Every structure is written in C-alpha cells, then in structure tokens.
Amino acid sequence: MPVVGIYNPVCGDQTAKSFFEEHVLPLCKETQVSVSGVLGTERINHVGELVLEFLEKTPIDEVLTVILGCGDGTLHEMINYLSSTEIRGRAGVPPEIHLVIIPCGTANALYSSLFPPAPESSSSTEYRLRSLRSYIVGQESHLVPLTLAITTLSSPPNAKLARPKAVASTVVVSTSLHASILYDSERLRAEMPGIERFKVAAQQNSTKWYNSSAKILPVASLGVVQLYDPDSKEFVSHPDSDEDDPFVDVYGPFAYFVATVNVDRLEPAFRITPLAKDIIPSEATCDLVVVRPFSDPTVSMDTPESRAAFAAKLWDILKGAYENGDHINLRYDEEGNLTTAGDGPFAVEYIRCGGWEWIPDDIDDDAHRICFDGAIYTIEKGGRAVCVAATPQVHAGFMVHA
Ligand SMILES: Nc1ncnc2c1ncn2[C@@H]1O[C@H](COP(=O)(O)OP(=O)(O)OP(=O)(O)O)[C@@H](O)[C@H]1O
C-alpha cells in the first residue's frame, strides 16, 4: 500500500520541514516504511491538490496512507478539497485514506485529543511521533474513523440563484466568541506564532454577545436531543425534546457556542467538550457547549454594564475547560455566583445532538461569523447555517492512526 509524506512548512512554528527531515523520515527508514514521495505545501489549498495527485496514482483497491505534518487547518483543507473534487480513475468509488498525523500546527486539537499529552510533553519529539509509531506497530489495528460535521450555509430564501455551500469539519464548528477569537487571532499570527494569540484575541472579544436563535437536532438513534446532567454525571433527554417533538429551540443572546466532533479539546489543555472522551458517543454526534448570559439569574438586560460583568464570569467558566473540563459542572447560585453546588441554572449547557441550525439576527454582524476548524466564513444576511454530524461509510473516508 502506498505511503506518502506531506507537510505544511508554515503551520505552527514553521518547523514541519525540519521535523520531517530529522525525525519522521529517519524513523520510517529505520522501520522499513517505504515512503514513495515527500512534498511540502506551497500555498493555501495545495495540500488537497497534492493528495489528489497521489490518489490518482493509487490503484482503486489500495489504501493511500498520508503522513501529514500539519495543524487542524491543513487537514480541514485537504478533506474539503477532496470532498468537492472528482477523482479520476475511481469510477465514483470514494477513496479510503489513512492518515498518520505529525502535529506541526498551533493548536493541534485533533492530535492532542487522540493523544492527550502529559503537561509539557506536547512539543517533545517522541510525543509528536505517536501516530507514526501506531502505524508502524500495527498498520490496521489502531485506525479511528473521522466523523465529519457537514455544515450547509444557506442564502436567504428569496435569493434563489445562490447555491448553498457545504463545508466539512473534523474538529470544530463554532459561532460567537470562539469564531471571533479565531477571526482576530489569525491577524495576530505573524507576531504571535503560538497559542498565546488565542488568549489575546479572547480578551479583545470578551464583552460581545451574539444575537441569534438556534435549533438543535436530535441524536439519530435516540430520536431526542441530550443534555448533560452534572448531578447524575450522565446525559439525559433534554427537557424540551421528546420523540413527538425532538427539536429544541434555543434563543439568544449567546456568549459562547462551540460544537465539536472527534475531539474533547481545542488545544492540548483546553478540554471544552470533555464528554467526547469521558462518555464516548456510539454514533456520529456533535458535542455542543453553549453559554447564554440570560441563564445567569442576575442578568436581565443587555447593557454595557451587564456585558462587562458577565465577561468576568465567562472567563471563569472557560477557565474550567483548562481544569480538565470542569466548566461543565458549573451552575449559578441565587446571587449569580458560579458554583458546583445546589440546583441553580446551568452556566454551561452541554448538549449532545445530531446537529444544529444557527439563524443569526440580521442586525448583528458578529453573529454571522462561523468558524470551521479555524477557517472563518460569513453567513449571508437572512441566511443560516445547518450543521449535521455524518457517519463515515465503511471503506471510505478518512481514518487516523491513533
Ligand atoms: N506554503 C504555504 N504558504 C502559505 N500558507 C500555506 C502554505 N501551505 C499551507 N498554507 C496554509 O497554512 C495555513 C495554516 O495551517 P494549519 O491550520 O494547519 O496550521 P496552524 O493554524 O498553525 O495550526 P492549527 O490549525 O492546529 O491551529 C493553512 O490554512 C494553509 O492553507
């Protein structure tokens, strides 16, 4: 079965090329893994073109293994390019691609979810070679299929000419604060190559609220939306969802709205959806973390003062994600303080679902921003985004050595 190497020389701290030369290729040689070609990406979207070229040379009954030195964005580009391109010589048969990931990006959310790092180990050489070691040890035995979150961006109903655009994500689809952070952090990339740029961008956006409504879609096999119950420490049926009326309407304003697939963290230590690992889903689902200011009993109006006061609470909530995902157990007491005790309203709504719709208010430009694995798109005025978790087909799609 053919094995090729592709790296993005500019992702993360720009060391992918040297890491391949000094560690990846020597290890392949030492373990008799024959790599038939190694190429660096030269521009945006090039990764998809390179994989396509290799794929078209791969016999239809063989699996292509790609050793990919990348961050989450490069993987995202590859999957979207291949999903929207006809592959010559395959007569419509979808390919199965096996990925060996070498984490070279900034956040490396997928890799650090597959291989949760011990503190301080995330940059060590041996840690970065774990997917490759897994491939070397058992070429078929540790393959994890990637669930895709397929999001369709629709134009307003009266704009008949525009075709909906579909985007596949393997890590995160988000709106609100997270999308704003990713949008602003990209502009800080040159001066801050590491994850500190996310914190700076978070500060810049901490008082924004996002006006939108959302509709949550049920988990397919259950017929209902699930909500995490911090008391029983398990998912229960969402109180607004039953088999007769499974959809849950959620109204804004929102502060935070992040859905993940395949991952429990967005950075090595930021476990925003810890239940993706702690209560493993049995089918394609999104884990959705929502924070709404009006859940706080002391917030009753959208004013600059209440936004400023709530920013400090949101910060405390998100700090819990850095404490092994403890934010999901937070509630408000009567004075609006965050606590893990009592039976006050949840500060975080942790939802497991088959998908969701996001319908931003026309007047709120920031609510139109949506993030796919770090790439930012804008929902048209009057349009919406519909995100659905998709189960990979057998012998098709993307599998990762983990
Ligand atoms: N030769 C190149 N020159 C400029 N940009 C490139 C080149 N090759 C790839 N890219 C772009 O680099 C971008 C960043 O890659 P990627 O997202 O993998 O890294 P990252 O943002 O550092 O990590 P992460 O997504 O894990 O935070 C991709 O969007 C890709 O289009």
Task: Describe the 3D structure.
The chain is built from ten helices and 22 strands. The chain is α+β, with helices and mostly antiparallel strands and 402 residues long. The protein has two domains: 3-141, Rossmann fold; 148-390, Tumour Suppressor Smad4 (Sandwich), CATH 2.60.200. Helix 7 packs across helix 8. The longest helix has 19 residues, at 304-322. 45% of the residues are buried. The mean pLDDT is 93. The site of adenosine-5'-triphosphate has 21 residues, from helix 3.
Short summary:
Helix content is 25%, strand content 27%. The chain is of the alpha+beta class and 402 residues long.
N→C terminal distance: 19 Å
Annotated CATH topology of the largest domain: Tumour Suppressor Smad4
Look at the structure and give the CATH class of the largest domain: Mainly Beta
Please compute the radius of gyration using only Cα atoms.
21 Å
How much helical structure, as a percent, in the residues? Answer: 10-25%
- Number of H- or I-type helical stretches: 10
CATH architecture of the largest domain: Sandwich
Query: Major sheet: size, sense and barrel closure?
Result: 8 strands, antiparallel
Q: Number of DSSP strands?
A: 22
Strand content: 25-35%
**Sheet with the most strands: spatial strand order:** 11-10-17-14-13-8-19-20
Overall pLDDT: 93
Poorly predicted runs are none
Ligands, ions, cofactors: adenosine-5'-triphosphate
Give the count of structural domains: 2
Overall outline: globular
Given helix and strand content, the structural type is alpha+beta
